[in-house]
Amino acid sequence: MDFATVLGLVISVGAVLVANGMDGGTLGSLVNLSAFILVMGGTIGATATSFPLEDIFTLPRLVLLSVVKREKNPRKTVEMLVEYADKARREGTLSLQNFITGKGDRFLERGLTLVVDGIDPHLVKSILETDLEFVEKRHHVGASILETAGGYAPTMGIIGTVMGLVHVLGKLEDPSKLGPAIAVAFLATFYGISTANLFWLPLAQKLKLRSQRELLVKEMVIEGLLAIQSGENPRMVRDRVEAFLAPRLHAREKPSPAADADSAPSEPEPAP
C-alpha cells in the first residue's frame, strides 16, 4: 500500500469537509446526484473520446497501482547487481544463468540473459535502451489519461452549472426557491474542480513520478550489467550503480573483504 497517496487523498478531502463544516455547511449540502453523474460521466466520456479504447481500459489498473502498489527499493537492485558481479568475477558470466528464474524483475532478467548468451555489449545496451524507451511511452500514456481527465472535469462542472442556472431561470415565479436552486447548480462546478485537483491531477503526477523513478532504476540496471559483462570487480560495480541514487541511499556498510582483496593493489615482492 502506498500510504503517501492514501494519506494525501484523505487529508485533501478531509480539509474540504472540515472547512465546509466550519462555515456552517452540512455534508448533505454537498450532495447532488445529478451533478455528480454529469461531471463524472462527462469527464470519463470525454477522456474516452480522446484515447484508444485499449488505453482507456487500463485506467482502473493505473489508479489502483498509484494507490496500492509500493515502489521497488532501489537498494535491493544495487545489492543484486553487486552479487551478480561477484559471482561472475569468480565463476564467469555463464554462472549468472542460475539467477534467471522468470519470476523476478523481467527487465533485469532479460538483461542477464543477454549477458549470459555473450551478446555484444553495444547490442545489449541497444536492446535494453529500446525496451526502456517503450516503457517510458507506455507510462506517458497512462499519466496523460489522468491529466486529460483533470482538464475535462472543471469544464464538465461549468456545463452542469450552466444547465442548473437555465433550470433556475425557468422558474422565477417563486423567488424563495432561487437561493437553494442556485446553490445546487453550483455543486457541479464544485465537483468538477474538486475531482480535478484532488483526484485526477494528483494521481497523474504520482504516476509520472513513479515512472521517472522506475526508469532511473532501469538505467542503473543497464549500467550495472554492462559493467559486469566487462568484468569489473564488485566494488567498482557498486560505485557505478550507486551514482544513480541519492547519497542517502548509498551503502554505509564496509565493503566485503573479497571486494577489498579484489580491488587492492598487489604488494611488491621482497627483493632477493
Short characterization:
With 272 residues, the protein is an all-alpha fold. The chain is 72% helix and 0% strand. The protein has one domain (3-73, 127-249).
What does this structure look like?
With 272 residues, the chain is mainly α. The chain has one domain. It contains 11 helices and no strands. The longest helix is centred in the middle third of the chain and has 49 residues. It is elongated. 25% of the residues are buried.
Task: Give keywords.
272 residues; mainly alpha; 11 helices; 0% strand; disordered C terminus
Strands, count: 0
- Low-pLDDT regions: 253-272
From the alpha carbons, calculate the radius of gyration and give it in angstroms.
28 Å
Structural class: mainly alpha
Give a quick account of the main beta sheet: strands, pairing sense, barrel closure. none
Tell me the count of domains. 1
How large is the share of residues in beta strands? Answer: under 5%
